[in-house]
Specification:
Layout (H helix, E strand, L loop, with lengths): L8 H15 L4 H13 L1 H19 L11
Helix pairs in contact: 1-3, 2-3
Length: 71
């Protein structure tokens, strides 16, 4: 997902962090890396917060039905 069709490295990295966090808990070293990245630039925190919202919303979307409804 990009802003207005542009590449957004902050968004891409934020999304990677969100996925990593949900695959398994971050260890202390990874948590420190994430914190350092978030603190390095305000745009990083904004991108991370947006990615977290997308992750949450995606989890609320019901899965498609297993089969088509009867005709």
């Amino acid at each position: 997902m990009t802003d207005s069709g542009r590449d957004d490295p902050a968004w891409d990295l934020a999304w990677e962090w969100i996925v990593r966090e949900h695959e398994q808990p971050l260890d202390a070293a990874a948590r420190q890396q994430l914190t350092a990245w978030l603190n390095a630039d305000p745009s990083h925190l904004r991108a991370y917060q947006q990615a977290a919202k997308v992750w949450l919303i995606a989890g609320l979307v019901p899965p498609p039905p297993d089969s088509d409804p009867p005709a």
